[in-house]
Amino acid sequence: MSVCFNRIHGNQNLKSYFSQAITGEAMPHALILEGQNGSGRYTFALELAMSMCCKAQEKPCGICNNCRKFKEGISPDVVTVTLPEGKASIPVDAVRDIKSSASKVPIENDYKFYIIRNCEKMTVQAQNAILKVLEEPPSFIVFILITTSASLLLPTIVSRAPVFRMQSFTAEELTDILLNNYQKAQKLNADDPEGFSYLVRAANGCLGQVIENLDKRSVGNTTKRYQLIEDFFCALIGNDKYSFISLEEEINSKKREEFVSFVSDIRIALRDVLCVKKSTQAQLLFFISEEKAIAFASMLTLESIVNMIGFCNEALKNNELNANMNLLKINFMSGMWKRAHS
Questions:
Q1: Above 60 in pLDDT, residue 265?
Q2: For 109, which of 29, 46, 53, 153 could close a Cys bridge (C-beta 3.0–4.6 Å)?
Q3: Domain count of the fold of the chain
C-alpha cells in the first residue's frame, strides 16, 4: 500500500508527512490546514479523507466508489461546515450539531470526517464548545480545520491540533505548473502573454486562484486591478492629497472581500518596494516591471514603507471586526497618505 497524492502540486513536505502517517496508521484525529484562499486547503483535506478510505493499493485512486463519493460531495461520512450565507461567523449551534453527531459511527467507511472551512470565523463560544470533542474524539473521527492563519484561533484549539501550512508558490513555479498541466493556461499564454503574467502575479502564490481565473474577462479585470494599484502609488508619491483621496471612489470595495483584496494587493506591492529599497536582487511578488518598483521606492523612505505595511495589517484587522466599510476606505486612504508623507 502506498499514498502518493499525485493530484496535489508541490507541498512535498506535507505529502511526505501524511503519506507516512496514513500508511503507519498514525494520522492525527484533529489537524489544522492553514494557507491563503486558493492554496488548495479544501482539496488537500478531501485527498486526505480519500486516502484513508480508498480501497486501491495506490491511494487515493480517485476512481473507486469511496473516492468518487468524496469528490462528488455525496459521501455520508464527510461533513463540511461552512460560514452560513449572509453571516459573519459560524455560530455555536453548528458546533453543537457536530458534537451530537460525532459519536455516531461511520456509515460506509472506517472513518468519519468533519471539515470546518473558515474555522477562524467560529465564535469564541463555538470554539470553546468544540474543545471537548477535540480532546477526546472517538477513534473513527478526523477533524480538519481550514483557516487562513492558525493565529486567529484560540490557543486552546491550536494546542490540540497540529498546524500544517499549504505551500505558496513563486510566480515562476506557478507558471511552470500551469503551462505543463492546464491547456487553458497554455492557450492564454500564447494569446496574451502579458495578461497571463498579470494573472499569475495577482494570484499571490495560490494555484487555485489562477485556475479559477483562466479566461479573458478575468485577465481584463486583473489588468485593471494592476492599473489601479499603479495609479494608487503614483498619486501616493505625488503632492496632491485631494487627488489621492479621491481615488477612494475608484476602489470597487462595496463588499468586504473586495476591500481585503485591494489592501492585500497594496501590502504585497509595498513588500516589493521594500525589497528593492534594501536589495538589488529582490524577487518580486507583485510588480512585473522591476523598474516601476524601483521608481516608487526612490520616492519613499524606508520608515514610511514599513509604517504603511503595518497600517495595511491594521486595516485588515479592522475589517475583521466588521467596521463600517465607508469609514474603512476613507481612513485607509488618509492613513496611507499621512504615513507616506510623514
A1: yes
A2: 53
A3: 2
Q: How confident is the model at residue 200 (pLDDT cuts 50, 70, 90)?
A: confident
Query: What is the domain extent for residue 292?
Result: 215-340
Residue 244 within a domain: yes
Whether 160 and 254 map to the same domain: the answer is: no
Which regions of the chain does DSSP assign to beta strands (E)? 2-3, 30-34, 58-59, 78-81, 112-116, 141-147, 163-165
Q: Is 33 exposed, middle or buried (0-12, 13-18, 19+ CB in 10 A)?
A: buried
DSSP 168-184: PPPHHHHHHHHHHH-HH
The CATH number of residue 252's host domain is 1.20.272
For position 167, what pLDDT does the model report? Answer: 93
pLDDT exceeds 80 at position 68: yes
Residue ranges of alpha helices (H) inside 247-288 are 256-278
Grid cell of 264 as nine digits: 492585500
pLDDT confidence bin for 188, thresholds 50/70/90: confident
Global confidence as pTM:
0.75
